[in-house]
Amino acid sequence: MLEVSHLTRTFGQLKAVDDVSFDVPTGQMIGFVGGNGAGKTTTMRMIMGLLAPDGGTVTWNGRPITREDRAHFGYMPEERGLYPKQAIVDQLIYIARLKGMTAAAARAEATSLMERFGLGDRLKDKLEKLSLGNQQRVQIAAAVMANPIALILDEPFSGLDPKAVDQMAGLLAERAARGVPVLFSSHQLDLIDRLCDGLVILSEGRMVADGTKDELESRGRLRHRLVVDGDAGWVRDFPDVRVDDVDGSTALVELQGPGAEQALLTEALRRGSVHEFAIVRPTLSEIYREVTA
Ligand SMILES: Nc1ncnc2c1ncn2[C@@H]1O[C@H](COP(=O)(O)OP(=O)(O)OP(=O)(O)O)[C@@H](O)[C@H]1O
Questions:
Q1: Residue 104 belongs to a domain with what CATH number?
Q2: CATH (domain of 253)
Q3: For 24, phi and psi rounded to 5 degrees?
């Protein structure tokens, strides 16, 4: 398990990362979310030892992380790590050799990964000859080569088409299923929602929320949707109800007191038929907007 505790980093007057603490447990995929400049890349660089923190610690399996641990991490940096003018296969082999793989095993893994991504015939090409999306697939392949013990990926899905997103998501999920902790940043909340066991939300350097989606949902506003026969406008005058929206026969409301649920339903039934009365869980986008507002 990777643990980040009270990490802090300032650049001049700016607190880019301010007392950030979270875990990336064994076998879990954790999404790292936050607006531009929130501090995600800076945090990842500190995890990887590329930037010294002003305060706080990074631990791996309960002890301070070492250079040797990090050497076995798979890291995809924001600025991307591979060389445009070198052959793909040579770079993938080089990276795997650094992590202790034999040349033959590295070549076999590079070939198998590239074939899996439909790039089996591009192995000897220079990276720059590939489209940007395909270059991105190679960058992800580089991070997962040689069985990394953890994956730290800075916006691995940006610029990928939906099919490539599915392929890469499948690849990361496989690694997580083998026990690898995976931390990746993304602005695509739908993807985080689909892939992640948990998420960490940063805003202006500070951690504003973390937990599983269920945990975050339960902290958010819970609303009910009521669909009746006629006009639902009467809910506006009903006690213990805060109306978010009424559109014809549909009302979206927040119930404010114990028993408000039963009282509202009873009143709706007294007035006619009820077609729907359901809890509306907040979407991840709504939770995100709420905690970063
Ligand atoms: N080397 C640096 N020197 C000065 N300021 C920096 C440096 N690196 C980052 N910053 C500043 O720290 C803040 C956090 O930046 P960071 O790149 O970590 O954010 P981010 O969450 O990754 O953003 P994005 O989603 O835009 O990539 C920003 O205001 C950025 O300008």
A1: 3.40.50.300
A2: 3.30.70
A3: -120, 95
- Testing ligand 1's pocket by substitution, the residue of 40, 44, 51 carrying the most ligand atoms inside 8 A of its CB is 40
Task: Determine the distance separating the centroid of ligand 1 and the alpha carbon of 271, expressed in angstroms.
Answer: 57
Choose the final residue of a domain: 198, 217, 236. 217
Q: How many CB atoms lie within 10 A of CB 172?
A: 23
Q: Are residues 152 and 233 in the same domain?
A: no
Q: Nearest residue CA, atom 31 of ligand 1?
A: 37
Ligand 1 atom, smallest distance to 12 CA: 4
pTM for the structure as a whole: 0.87
Question: Structural domain of residue 10, as residue ranges?
Answer: 2-217
User: CA-to-CA distance for 90 and 107, rounded, in angstroms?
Assistant: 9
Per-residue pLDDT of 67-107, as tens digits, reads: 999 999 999 998 888 888 999 999 999 999 998 899 999 99
CA separation for the pair 228, 234 (Å, rounded)? 11
CA 189 to ligand 1 centroid distance, Å: 20
> Considering its fold, how many domains does the chain have in total?
2
C-beta of 209 in contact with ligand 1 (< 6 A): no
